[in-house]
């Protein structure tokens, strides 16, 4: 067997071995979160705890700012117990126009959300060893870095690289590993992933 034949056979065996090893790798239990685009509706949905400013054109006596109650409804002098949560500001404005049409001819209503909390499924919640664990209103294109800035980073007892995002996708719960320490301490932008509405970021405590 000459040198060229031996070299060719060695390369073939090496390639086959590499393919076998790659094919046999097990899928990790908690796959890393991918930096992917959010498919959620970009329009903000009003939630309990929000404040809305209702402006009725040429009718200042029924124009006012009102809070959205915990049951998701609002009340104004001429409109009682109107569902607001889960609607966009435009949808709520049309509903108010319909309700006011009993008293005002062709009312024109504008609704502006002035304080944002959002529905639970439109929030991003942070629990565990964050400096300020809290629920945040989701914002379009929100990233892991945005969330960490909002909660003041992590505590000295946090195991940031063991953090995970709990996410519901098509009714199924997923656990996605994230590397908070690498992002915050090393500036590794590859660890900065896209958040989705309803995500829960869990930052565990270090063993030591």
From TrEMBL:
Topology within the bilayer: Multi-pass membrane protein
Keyword Ion transport part of the UniProt annotation: yes
Gene3D superfamilies reported for this sequence: Outer membrane lipoprotein wza domain like, wza like domain
Pfam family for this entry, one: SLBB_2
Residues annotated as domain Polysaccharide export protein N-terminal: 39-113
Chain segments annotated as transmembrane: none
Subcellular location(s) of the protein: Cell outer membrane
Keywords: Cell outer membrane, Ion transport, Lipoprotein, Membrane, Palmitate, Polysaccharide transport, Porin, Signal, Sugar transport, Transmembrane, Transmembrane beta strand, Transport
InterPro entries: PEP-CTERM_polysacc_export, Poly_export, Poly_export_N, SLBB_dom
Residues in SLBB domain copies: 123-202
Signal peptide: 1-32
Family of this protein: Belongs to the BexD/CtrA/VexA family.
Name of the protein this chain belongs to: Polysaccharide export protein
Species in which this protein is naturally found: Massilia terrae
């Amino acid at each position: 067997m000459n040198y060229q034949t031996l070299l060719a056979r060695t390369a073939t065996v090496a390639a086959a071995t590499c393919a076998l090893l790659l094919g046999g790798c097990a899928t990790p239990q908690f796959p890393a979160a991918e930096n992917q685009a959010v498919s959620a509706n970009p329009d903000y949905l009003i939630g309990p705890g929000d404040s809305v400013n209702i402006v009725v054109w040429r009718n200042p006596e029924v124009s006012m700012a009102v809070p959205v109650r915990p049951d998701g409804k609002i009340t104004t002098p001429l409109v009682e117990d109107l569902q607001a949560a889960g609607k966009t500001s435009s949808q709520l404005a049309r509903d108010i126009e319909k309700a006011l049409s009993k008293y005002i001819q062709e009312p024109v209503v504008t609704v502006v959300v002035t304080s944002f909390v959002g529905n639970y499924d439109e929030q991003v919640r942070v629990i565990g060893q964050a400096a300020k664990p809290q629920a945040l209103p989701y914002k379009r294109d929100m990233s892991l870095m945005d969330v960490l800035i909002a909660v003041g980073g992590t505590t000295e007892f946090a195991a940031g690289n063991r953090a995970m995002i709990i996410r519901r996708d098509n009714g199924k719960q997923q656990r996605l590993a994230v590397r908070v320490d690498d992002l915050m301490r090393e500036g590794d932008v590859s660890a900065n992933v896209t958040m989705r509405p309803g995500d829960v970021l869990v930052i565990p405590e270090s063993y030591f």
